[in-house]
């Protein structure tokens, strides 16, 4: 029963008693009255005390510090746990790394491949080594009347030191190459054997270089590299080049200022010109400075710079100033899967006799050597990964070059025993032209496992020339496919496929009786397939088999110069320590 009922009960009894007395006094009749009223409870408002009461006690109770101790009592137990056995993990045997190796191989066309690499650890920070390589073939190409043998021998040495705050590397080398100008024109198809066999088409190149790099840590001076190179041949040609490139970097809060310099000197001479003309001398000095601001954060990389060059033609006492863009930007859009990049580039590239003969060994020692000014090249693209094992790269570019070097067949001037062996339209000269180039590039790489990789790339070119009829000997399309794979733990291999599209060259006949005659010829595109297989006998000895130009196509990389057919090479590599 609620409190309200207890309070109501006395009041009810009192009223009932009074009523009874009154009835007795008045003599009235008995009547029952029921009073019904619903109970409506109410809740009083509560008020929060907003002040903390202050105690005025004169004695303040302090908390007594409690100290306790634990008494350990040994408990005897007869339980003996079973001994656990650690799980074993199969560990791969580390591969032995050797400091030296030697390779020797033999193939058809009496071809020989030899390599020897050796590295010596002088101390914990210093080491030195050398690399010797020889590649040659003595066989002849079918339907070619002159010898087609060649050999290429290169010796390189290095010394490296890595200290705490500074590192430096010294390099030196020498090379000797032999090639033959065997690409005789159609005009000599009916020439007597005595005359043709009397031509000595051999050309020998030799030279050497000395260079090095010094780099530092925790300093505004980043590094400096320098190279001095000499090139000569069997026809008294000579060329000396020297180049030094220092680099500096000044770091700020959000960006870095980089400063590069470029000093490039070149001097050379040819004993005589083509077709009994006088000799050629050339001398160039290019001075450049390349400042740039670099900003890098988690997703954005930006470099804004310029390249200013002064080109000095020392032979003719002429000077020209150049200014080029140096802009690069990349933005990571989606982690490693999508990255956008773009920029604009340019520069003053010094051509060299050494570079010309490396690209085309059948050039004549009668070249005019001059630099190429890359006014600009704007580019943009996207690269990244489709999956963790598939990567891609797509790029488009457009640029303009002033004085781009083009290989062009030297003219036919007749038959004479007084001519040099390269003056029968069987050698190449260099001509220069202003060229606009549009390029589209695509690349795809697949790495399904550590034992299998596959890649394919291709590039399309469109050229617009100024004074020349065509961009001589430049292809419109190049493509390649390469793969490396492991068949078993001992057997491995690889394959490559190269395609070069059509090129055009200009044939000229300057004989006195026929007069000047020119003809544009088109060299067909070619496909070159190569395969190599290797077998690991043990950690030291490997056997290998290489096949080149397996399609057997004696295509012409240069006009009138068919290449060797199917080539095979069998050899072995042995690794060792001294």
Concise description?
The chain is mainly beta. The chain contains three helices and 26 strands.
Order of helices and strands: HEEEEEHEEEEEEEEHEEEEEEEEEEEEE
Give the CA-based shape. Answer: globular
CATH class of the largest domain: Mainly Beta
Q: How large a portion of the residues is in β-strands, by DSSP E?
A: over 45%
CATH superfamily of the largest domain: TonB-dependent receptor, beta-barrel domain
How does the major sheet shape up?
A: 22 strands, antiparallel, barrel
**Helix content class:** under 10%
Estimate nothing, just give the exact number of structural domains. Answer: 2
Radius of gyration: 45 Å
At the fold tier of CATH, the topology name of the largest domain is Maltoporin, Chain A
Amino-to-carboxy terminus distance: 109 Å
Question: Would you kindly provide a written description of the structure presented here, covering whatever features stand out?
Answer:
- The chain has 578 residues and is mainly beta.
- The protein folds into 2 domains: 1-35; 100-108 and 118-576, TonB-dependent receptor, beta-barrel domain (Maltoporin, Chain A).
- The protein is built from 3 helices and 26 strands.
- The strands form 3 sheets. The protein has a 22-stranded antiparallel beta barrel.
- It is globular, with a radius of gyration of 45 Å.
């Amino acid at each position: 029963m609620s409190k309200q009922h207890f309070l109501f009960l006395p009041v009810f009894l009192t009223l009932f008693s009074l009523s009874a007395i009154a009835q007795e006094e008045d003599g009235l009749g008995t009547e029952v009255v029921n009073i019904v009223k619903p109970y409506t409870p109410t809740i009083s408002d509560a008020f929060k005390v907003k002040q903390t009461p202050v105690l005025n006690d004169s004695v303040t109770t302090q908390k007594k510090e409690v100290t306790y101790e634990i008494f350990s009592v040994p408990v005897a137990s007869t339980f003996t746990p079973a001994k656990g056995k650690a799980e074993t993990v199969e560990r791969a045997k580390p591969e032995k790394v050797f400091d030296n190796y030697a390779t020797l191989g033999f193939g058809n066309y009496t071809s020989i491949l030899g390599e020897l690499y050796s590295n010596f650890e002088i101390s914990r920070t210093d080491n030195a080594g050398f690399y010797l390589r020889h590649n040659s073939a003595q066989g002849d190409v079918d339907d070619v009347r002159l010898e087609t043998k060649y050999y290429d021998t290169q010796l390189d040495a290095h010394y490296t030191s890595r200290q705490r705050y500074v590192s430096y590397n010294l390099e030196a080398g020498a090379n000797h190459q032999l090639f033959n100008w065997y690409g005789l024109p159609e005009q000599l198809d009916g020439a007597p054997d005595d005359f043709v066999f009397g031509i000595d088409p051999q050309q020998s190149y030799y030279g050497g270089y000395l260079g090095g790099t010094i780099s530092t840590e925790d300093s505004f001076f980043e590094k400096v590299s320098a190279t001095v190179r000499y090139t000569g041949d069997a026809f008294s040609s000579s060329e000396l080049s020297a180049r030094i490139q220092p680099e500096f970097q000044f770091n700020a809060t959000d960006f870095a200022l980089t400063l590069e310099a470029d000093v490039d000197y070149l001097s050379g001479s040819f004993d005589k010109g083509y077709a009994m003309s006088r000799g050629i001398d050339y001398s160039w000095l290019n001075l450049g400075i390349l400042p740039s601001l670099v900003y890098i954060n988690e997703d954005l990389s930006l470099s804004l710079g310029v390249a200013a060059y002064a080109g000095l033609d020392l032979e003719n006492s002429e000077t020209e100033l150049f200014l080029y863009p140096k802009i690069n930007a990349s933005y990571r859009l989606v982690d490693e899967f999508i990255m956008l990049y773009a920029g604009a580039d340019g520069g003053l590239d010094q051509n060299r006799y050494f570079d010309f003969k490396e690209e085309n060994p059948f050039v004549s020692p009668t070249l005019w050597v001059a630099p190429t000014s890359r006014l600009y090249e704007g580019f943009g693209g996207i690269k990244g990964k489709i999956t963790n094992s598939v990567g891609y790269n797509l790029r488009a570019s457009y640029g303009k070059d002033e004085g781009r070097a083009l290989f062009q067949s030297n003219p036919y001037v007749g038959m004479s025993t007084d001519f040099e062996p390269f003056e029968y339209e069987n050698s190449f000269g260099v001509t220069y032209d202003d060229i606009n180039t549009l390029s589209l590039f695509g690349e795809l790489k697949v790495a399904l496992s550590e034992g299998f990789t596959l890649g394919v790339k291709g590039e399309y070119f469109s050229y617009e020339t100024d004074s020349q009829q065509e961009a001589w000997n430049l292809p419109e399309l190049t493509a390649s496919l390469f793969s490396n794979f492991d068949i078993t733990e001992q057997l491995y291999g690889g394959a490559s496929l190269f395609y070069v599209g059509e090129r055009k060259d200009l044939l000229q006949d300057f004989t006195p009786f026929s007069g000047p005659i020119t003809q544009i010829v088109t060299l067909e595109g070619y496909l070159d397939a190569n395969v190599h297989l290797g077998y690991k006998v043990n950690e030291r000895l490997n056997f290998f088999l290489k096949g080149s130009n397996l399609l057997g196509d004696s295509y012409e990389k240069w006009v009138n110069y068919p290449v060797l057919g199917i080539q095979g090479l069998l050899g072995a590599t042995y690794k060792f320590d001294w």
